[in-house]
């Protein structure tokens, strides 16, 4: 059942917001708070307008409009994927029953918590990336940053709509708190640790959009399976937008590796620091950091909460309906990561409590695809070095491996040896200082900073040297 998007309203939407005046007024009263947050915590670089895509529909074709828009005037809207009238619950104890259009009372608190945690990540990444515009390596990259920012803002709107529409006063209060917490704040930090880390440079940004936004993809994928149909439809449309964020990360790292390779070949050296590049060793360290931090976002290897979410039908597995099992899992088991005899190993647990591990493994396999892609650049250049994902036990602060220190190969170290050697595997202050030294803005049309290769193609069929951003 398709509902056309209404762009005449103050809040663009395809949920017939005008038919619920109370909800409409509540969201319209939240809107100035959102804009105040955007002004104070959103992109800091002043711009006149930016060539952005704006969601205008949810269909497979023609869902977005591209054009210049002043950032503050971006039409953040509420869009749910088309409703499937005969959709049924695909897993858990309610498998086969019709999906829910309202929140069942017994699952109210759990559903609200899931929506709040997802909602909290969206403004957090905007806050983390607030100052990156000041060091953008090209207008193309600046535009991509701003596209990611406005869409994270829209994803916040998506979760706020659900909180307002389905969770009453408590939901409205939670929606306010989403604007009061701030990334890195000592008094009121964001809920998840990775979203309180700095994103101080563009290499970090590309790694974040590759690894951490990819975690977002998998979390949204589990919520897309939800028996609560409005949440499912919301996440289905968010996934469409999220793919661009990962594209920014994938191709950004492509371009960094390509430029490093060019400099290595041109100067016949692995150490490209003196030539204004980022050495493969530093790229690997940044990869190690962002991958390990993102693994922590999946939580502990075993979780009774996640087992309960699955059984209740609140949160499924990635690609749930393509799985070849009974989708109930009460009699199944899974091997999960664990400390065995003092070393990283595996142990068998009930499949239901091991669902975090199941999702993390899907994610790791997906991350490996990017590493393979970057390694092809090295291989095709005749360079025998390779990038790689570190062991799952490396640099972990959550789960089975939080209590140990391990090398990227999974070798357990004493705390003293870890302190002595961690600079071999994680960015040091010297590494970060070098990367920051390269972060000189390039705002001239068609020009690109010297530490990464130019993009291969432009946005929406435009040339790479298109004037994607008009600065104020």
Automatic annotation (TrEMBL):
Q: What is this protein called?
A: Benzoyl-CoA 2,3-epoxidase subunit BoxB
Point out the gene that encodes the protein. Answer: boxB
User: InterPro entries from the xrefs?
Assistant: Aromatic_CoA_ox/epox (IPR052703), Benzoyl_CoA_Oase_BoxB (IPR017635), Ferritin-like_SF (IPR009078), RNR-like (IPR012348)
Taxonomic lineage per UniProt? Bacteria, Bacillati, Actinomycetota, Actinomycetes, Streptosporangiales
Q: Which Gene3D superfamilies match?
A: Ribonucleotide Reductase, subunit A (1.10.620.20)
Report which superkingdom the organism of origin falls in.
Bacteria
- Which stretch is the leader sequence? none
């Amino acid at each position: 059942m398709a509902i056309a998007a209404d762009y005449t309203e103050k809040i663009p939407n395809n949920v017939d917001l005008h038919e619920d005046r109370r909800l409409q007024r509540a969201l319209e009263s939240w809107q100035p708070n959102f804009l105040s947050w955007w002004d104070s915590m959103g992109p800091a670089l002043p711009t006149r307008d930016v060539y952005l895509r704006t969601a205008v529909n949810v269909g497979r074709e023609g869902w977005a409009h591209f054009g210049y828009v002043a950032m503050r005037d971006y039409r953040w809207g509420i869009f749910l994927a088309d409703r499937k009238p005969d959709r049924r619950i695909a897993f858990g104890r309610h498998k086969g029953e019709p999906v829910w259009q309202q929140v069942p009372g017994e699952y109210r608190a759990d559903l609200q918590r899931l929506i709040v945690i997802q909602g909290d990540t969206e403004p957090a990444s905007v806050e983390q990336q607030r100052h990156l515009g000041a060091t953008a390596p090209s207008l193309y990259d600046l535009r991509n940053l701003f596209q990611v920012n406005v869409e994270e803002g829209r994803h916040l709107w998506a979760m706020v709509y659900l909180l307002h529409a389905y969770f009453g006063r408590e939901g409205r209060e939670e929606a306010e708190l989403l604007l009061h917490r701030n990334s890195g704040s000592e008094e009121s930090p964001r809920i998840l640790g990775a979203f309180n880390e700095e994103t101080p440079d563009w290499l970090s940004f590309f790694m974040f959009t590759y690894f951490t936004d990819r975690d977002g993809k998998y979390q949204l994928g589990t919520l897309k399976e939800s028996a609560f149909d409005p949440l499912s439809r919301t996440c289905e449309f968010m996934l469409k937008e999220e793919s661009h964020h990962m594209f920014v990360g994938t191709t950004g790292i492509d371009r960094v590796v390509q430029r490093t390779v060019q400099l290595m070949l041109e100067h016949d050296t692995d150490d490209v620091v003196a030539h204004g590049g980022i050495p493969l060793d530093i790229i690997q360290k940044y990869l190690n950091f962002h991958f390990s931090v993102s693994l922590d976002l999946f939580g502990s290897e075993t979780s009774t909460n996640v087992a309960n979410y699955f059984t209740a039908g609140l949160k499924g597995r990635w690609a749930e309906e393509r799985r070849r099992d009974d989708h109930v899992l009460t009699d199944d088991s899974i091997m999960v990561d664990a400390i065995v005899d003092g070393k990283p190993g595996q142990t068998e647990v009930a499949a239901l409590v091991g669902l975090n591990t199941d999702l993390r493994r899907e994610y790791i396999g997906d991350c490996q695809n990017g590493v393979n892609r970057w390694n092809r650049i090295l291989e095709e250049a005749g360079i025998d070095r390779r990038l790689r994902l570190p062991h799952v036990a490396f640099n972990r602060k959550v789960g089975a491996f939080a209590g140990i220190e391990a090398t990227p190969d999974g070798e357990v170290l004493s705390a003293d040896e870890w302190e002595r050697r961690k600079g071999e595997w994680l960015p040091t202050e010297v590494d970060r200082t070098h990367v920051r030294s390269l972060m000189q803005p390039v705002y001239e049309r068609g020009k690109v900073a010297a530490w990464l290769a130019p993009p291969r193609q432009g946005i929406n069929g435009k040339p790479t040297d298109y004037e994607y951003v008009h600065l104020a």
